[in-house]
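#struct-queue
[09:14] JT: dropping the first one here, sequence first, then the structure tokens:
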Amino acid sequence: MDDWDILEQELKKACPGMKVCRNEPMAKRTTFRVGGNAAIMVFPQTEQEAAAALQTLCRMEIAPFFLGNGSNLLVSDSGYEGVVVKYSAVLHPQERDGVFVAGGATLLSELSTAAAKSGLKGLEFAYGIPGTVGGAVTMNAGAYAGEMAQVVSWVKVMDGQGNVETIPAESCDFSYRHSAFSDGKRLVLEAGFSLAPGDQGEIQAKMTELLTQRKVKQPLEYPSAGSTFKRPPGYFAAALIDQCGLKGLTVGGAQVSEKHAGFVINRGGATCTDILTLVEQVKERVLAETGVALELEVKTLGV
């Protein structure tokens, strides 16, 4: 019996009803559709299961990786020799004490749709972002001049010892694609959003408009992790890449999208190595020709 067998037994003992998977293919857990297997993946369905799982991992001195929808993640071809925790508790968006509340596992599309149906505006920008509430809060996700920092009221998190705390927005340290939770040491259980009353029809129309823009401008027909690079101060990554004539640049199954230069896409059969090699070529060319250093926005695991 190896160490992973022992850990699997300990997790199942601590959480008898919790789903625990060995050698879970990460390619099916990320929107890039690449990556090897995670040694163990666990799916706590309640706060109690999450606490028991994290306490078990803490006792065995293993730091977990918290996974949302995998929409901003690139996993190594050799996989991840560690434990991935995918919090799967269902908490449908609802109003509570004047705040719109959603679980960390809630998809942003569900969150923004529910807010619109309740006649609440402020989350229209999030409609087409393919992430979860937990992931979006953690990276302060944004689009079309909106971001999580503008609407988050508080965030309920659990640390590696299973302790739960509610953090007010002013203590979340939000900045561009960053929050106090970006170090990956706390699991987002819930988030509360401060939204304003609005006309349901107008809110829905705005969401539809933004989604249409996405479909027209972005290569949604291919697997990707969205915007590959962070926005450099004073510039737009896509414009710089396009300026350098890099649209269509290909390495293996990875390509700089011909539709939107800010996206590296998986045209079919791409590996993590293909994607990272292409990313480095883009960074080198842009730096050499424009003097601007691009920074990867996509998170990596096992690389």
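[09:21] JT: and here's the second one, same format:
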Amino acid sequence: MEEILSMEQKMDEIDEQIVRLLDQRLALSEQQEELKRKNRVLTPDTGRERELIAKVTELAGPEAKYCAQSVFHAISAADRSRRNAVERGDSLMDSIHQALADTPDLFPPEAIVACQGTEGAYSQITCDRMFKTPSIMFFESFSHVFRAVEAGMCQYGILPIENSTAGSVNAVYDQMLKHNFYIVKSARLKINHFLLANPGASLDGIREIISHQQAISQCSNFLSTLKNVDVHPVANTAIAARTVAESGRTDVAAICSASCGEDYGMKVLKENIQDSNGNYTRFICISKNQEIYPGADRISLIIRVPHKPGALYNVLAKFYALGVNIRKLESRPMPDTDFEFEFYFDVESPVYAPETDRLIRDLEKGPETIRYLGAYNEILI
């Protein structure tokens, strides 16, 4: 036991030495940068960092080389982050600060809003709760919602982005890569699915069920109990309800919201058929212009990294070093490439916080391509 304690004491002493040496190294780096600025010496550090990693790899030997590489990559990243915080100039943060200054204190109660689907859609329910008196324009597809906002036809658009049980709405993520927009708000809506049919229908007589693919996935347990029933996906849950109502048939039913029953004169065959009672869908509200309302504590980004080993790790290390939590990381294939990906990030960081400023500047100065999608807050409705 004494031998173990003695080893721990020696390791503690070495750790203290490492910290003191690290302080000295960072101080020297700061002095060097100051001299460079005074003498207007503009030399890239990429070659210097590559030489450093090669040298410490050789010094460490085969047993410790990967550990040494990781440590010195982290030291170099911290050094770059410090320099980026000092260096100013044109930055994405300038447009963010301008949006903060220009955005009103209150989210607008009235607006023309684009939603996918038709009356009774969950997007419409979300819109009615997010705005006090919205004027809703319905569109056939998610792409049309993006286009309506992009063209200025609608001030805002409401889009489902993920579900707590069925996962991401991939069709929306794919459209994000194709359109210009900003996220200005997000909301989580509790989803209760109902099986609705025309008057005179019975559960035993149903031979076909239609709904959106996400809703079908969220009700898989209930659907597995049915016999001799075909299930078909359609563009939207409310469109499914309208289709059933217009058909006049009593052997077909729709999975949709309860409000569709009132909208289309349908009866409830079964209520709350979702697999989980904790079933929530997250919606985003998008705008053509950047707006940042008070309380914005979530930021969304799309980051494209070089196609080489360690590229994503280097990005994640920047979030870790600044203590910024990543709420969501989604990879999406880049169009017209051979298995290359862009990464969608949702991060928890107040837009006003210094670590947000530093993170954005670090990402801008790195080899990555960064696309800022907005700063906003999320509400439960």
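[09:30] RK: nice, looked through the second one.
[09:31] RK: The radius of gyration is 27 Å.
[09:31] JT: good to know. The longest helix spans residues 46-86.
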